[in-house]
User: Which sequence fits this backbone?
DNA sequence: ATTTTAATTGCAAGCGATTGCATAAATTTT
DNA sequence: AAAATTTATGCAATCGCTTGCAATTAAAAT
C-alpha cells in the first residue's frame, strides 16, 4: 500500500508538498503538482483513511440509523432504497456510511453512544422519525448533527429533514379519484400514530372538503382475512355506496383488494383503489394498483446531500421536500357521474 | 472527548500504562489496572477509532457489498435482514460495517477499489453470489479476504461462505406436498441462471424421483396477468391433472395464486401452493401461503461470525449451512389419494 | 546591482493510540 | 546485606497524514 512518502519520493519532493499538491493547494506550483499527481496515480495512491481522519480531526463517515428492529419494518424495501440513495451520494463525495441498528431501543442507543465516543462519525442520518425518540435525545445531548428522513417531532426548528409532502400527496390521490368521477370515497388507514398516515388523511380531507364531500374514514389492519371481512361488512352497512378507496399504503390496498375480490357480493362491484409508495405490491395486485410514488431513493440522496454540504453550526436548518407522483395502473376505473 | 492521556493523568499513570491496562495486559498490576479502568469509566473514555486503527494497522470495519442496483433486488427485504444480522454481531464485537453499493458494475468495483486503497476495511461480506463477478475478481486480485452469502462460483475451494441447503429445501417443500397426498406436482421457477433456483429444482426432482413421480417444470415470470393466463392455459393443456405447485419463491407463488384465483375455471379447483423465503408476501396471500423459511438474518449473523473469527490466512475455509423450516399456513390442502 | 516582495518548498510538530525497550521498584536468592 | 530476578512502569518511536512556520528561491521593485 503506497503512502504519501512513497509518492513524495517518487515525485522528488517532500511529504508535505506532496500532501498539499494532492489537495490542490494554491501554494504549490503547477509543475510540481503535476509531478505529484502523476506519481500518485502511478502508485495507485489513496490517502490512508484512518491517518487522514486522525490528522484532520474531521471524520468522513456518516452514521445511518435504522429504526429499532421490528419485522414489519425490516420487510419494508423502503429502507434499503433510502440507503442506496445515501450511499450513492456519499461515495461520490468520498465519504463512507456505516449502519447503526439495534434489536431494542437500549441497544440502538448504546451502539450510537459508542459510535459517538469513538469519534469517527461526522453526522447521522435517521431513516425514520418518531415521537420521543431516545436516539434523538442522545444526539442532541452530545450535540451531534443529524438529518432525519420524515417530519421531525422534537426540536423541529433546529433539525434538518427531508420528507415528502404527505398532505399534498393525500390530496392528489383523492383528487385523482374525484377526477375519475368518484364521490363516495373512503380513506383506509392502519395506524393513526404515524405522522405519514395522519398527514395523508389530512390531505384526503382537504380534497373532499373542497368538493363539499363528506370524509369517510376506515381504520383497519386486515390482520387476517376473517377480520377484514367482518370489518368491511360493518363498513359497507354504514356506507353502502362507496366506490373508491384511498389506502394509506400499497400493502393495505392489496389486502383490501384481496378481501374484496374473494367475496361473492363485493367482487361483482368494481371498486377503485389507489395506494401509496408505488411498492412492489402494486405490481402484484390484480388489477395492478395505481399508486402514489414517493421515491425513497431520492429521499436518501437529499438527506446525504444535506449532510455532505457540511453547514456551519449556526446556519439555519434545511428542509427538502421530495415530490411525489401518481403512477397510473389499472385499479382506478372511471365512473360516469353527474356534475 | 477524552483521550488516553486524560485517562492516564486522572489515574496518575503514563499513557502507555493506561493503554495496557485498558487492554488487560498481564504486565500491569491489579491495583493500577483498577485505577485506570475507573478513570476511563469516569471520563466516558473510548479509544479513538482512527487513532487505534492507525496505530495497530488493523482495521475494524467490515465492508458489506450489495449487488449492483436493480429494482428487483432492492425491493427484496432479504438484504436488509441480512444486513441486520451482520450488524448485530459486528457491533457486539466492536466492529463497524460500511456499505458498498453501485448503480453499475463498474461503479461498484470502483467504490470497492477506493475502500481497499484507503486501507480501512478488514474484510468484505458479499450479500450475493453470481457468475463471473468482477467484484470477486477484484478482491482476489488484491488478496482481500471475504465471505459470500450464497454458493460461491469462483475459487470455490478457497472462499468461505454461508448458505442454505437449497437442494434439501427443495426436497422438503416437495415432500411436504407429497405427504399431503399430492402426486402431480409442478415446480414453478423464473430464472434458471440463478443457482438458488436450479438447486431448489434439483431438490424437487430428487423428491419426485424417490416416489417415482415425473418432474413437471414450468418457467414463467408472470410479468403481467395476461401473459400468466396464456402460460397457464398452455400448461394445463399439457398437464391437466396437476394439483400442487412448488414455487421457487413467495412472490412467484403469489402471482400464480392471483392468476388462478381470477379465472372462473381454475378458481373452482383447489390447488395447493408452497413457496420459499417466508416473505411478507406469504401473509398477504389469500389463503395465506405455506412457505419454506430461510432466515436471512441468520445468514448475515453467520457470515459476520466467520469474519469476526479472523482466521489465519492459511486456514481452511469455512462453510456454514443455515437450516430452513417449513412455515405452515393455509395454502396446502390435503387430498385423499391412493397409496 | 541591491533590496523588497512574492511564490514555493521543506522541517518538524501533532493527531491519539500502541509497543519495544530501558528503567525503577519489589521480591528472591545466595 | 548484596546480588540476581522478577514485576511494573514510563520513555520515546511509530502508524500515515496534515499544517504552521521558517527557509529557500524566484520575481519585482528600487
Assistant:
Amino acid at each position: 500500500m503506497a503512502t504519501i512518502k512513497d509518492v513524495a519520493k517518487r515525485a522528488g519532493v517532500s511529504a508535505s508538498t506532496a500532501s498539499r499538491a494532492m489537495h490542490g493547494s494554491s501554494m504549490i506550483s503547477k509543475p510540481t503538482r503535476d509531478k505529484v499527481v502523476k506519481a500518485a496515480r502511478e502508485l495507485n495512491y489513496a490517502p490512508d483513511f484512518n491517518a487522514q481522519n486522525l490528522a484532520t480531526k474531521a471524520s468522513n463517515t456518516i452514521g445511518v440509523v435504522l429504526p429499532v428492529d421490528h419485522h414489519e419494518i425490516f420487510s419494508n424495501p423502503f429502507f434499503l432504497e433510502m440507503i442506496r440513495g445515501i450511499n450513492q451520494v456519499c461515495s461520490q463525495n468520498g465519504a463512507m456510511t456505516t449502519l447503526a441498528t439495534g434489536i431494542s431501543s437500549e441497544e440502538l442507543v448504546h451502539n450510537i453512544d459508542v459510535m459517538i465516543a469513538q469519534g469517527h462519525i461526522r453526522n447521522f442520518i435517521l431513516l425514520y422519525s418518531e415521537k420521543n425518540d431516545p436516539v434523538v435525545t442522545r444526539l442532541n445531548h452530545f450535540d451531534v448533527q443529524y438529518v432525519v428522513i420524515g417530519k421531525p417531532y422534537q426540536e423541529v426548528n433546529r433539525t434538518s429533514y427531508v420528507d415528502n409532502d404527505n398532505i399534498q400527496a393525500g390530496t392528489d390521490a383523492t383528487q385523482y379519484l374525484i377526477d375519475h368521477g368518484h364521490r363516495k370515497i373512503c380513506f383506509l388507514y392502519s395506524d393513526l400514530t404515524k405522522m405519514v398516515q395522519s398527514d395523508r388523511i389530512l390531505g384526503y380531507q382537504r380534497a373532499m372538503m373542497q368538493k363539499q364531500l363528506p370524509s369517510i374514514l376506515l381504520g383497519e389492519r386486515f390482520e387476517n382475512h376473517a377480520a377484514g371481512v367482518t370489518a368491511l361488512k360493518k363498513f359497507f352497512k354504514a356506507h353502502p355506496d362507496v366506490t373508491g378507496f384511498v389506502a394509506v399504503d400499497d400493502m393495505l390496498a392489496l389486502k383490501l383488494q384481496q378481501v374484496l375480490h374473494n367475496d361473492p357480493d363485493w367482487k361483482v362491484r368494481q371498486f377503485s383503489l389507489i395506494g401509496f409508495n408505488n411498492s412492489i405490491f402494486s405490481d402484484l395486485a390484480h388489477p395492478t394498483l395505481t399508486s402514489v410514488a414517493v421515491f425513497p431513493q431520492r429521499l436518501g440522496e437529499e438527506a446525504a446531500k444535506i449532510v455532505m454540504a457540511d453547514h456551519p453550526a449556526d446556519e439555519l436548518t434545511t428542509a427538502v421536500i421530495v415530490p411525489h407522483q401518481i403512477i397510473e395502473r389499472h385499479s382506478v376505473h372511471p365512473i360516469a357521474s353527474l356534475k
Remarks:
- Residues 13-17, 20, 27-29, 32, 51, 53-57 of chain A lie near DNA strand C (CB under 10 Å from a C1').
- The CA atoms of residues 158 and 316 of chain A lie 8 Å apart.
- Chain A touches chain B through 60 residues (CB under 8 Å).
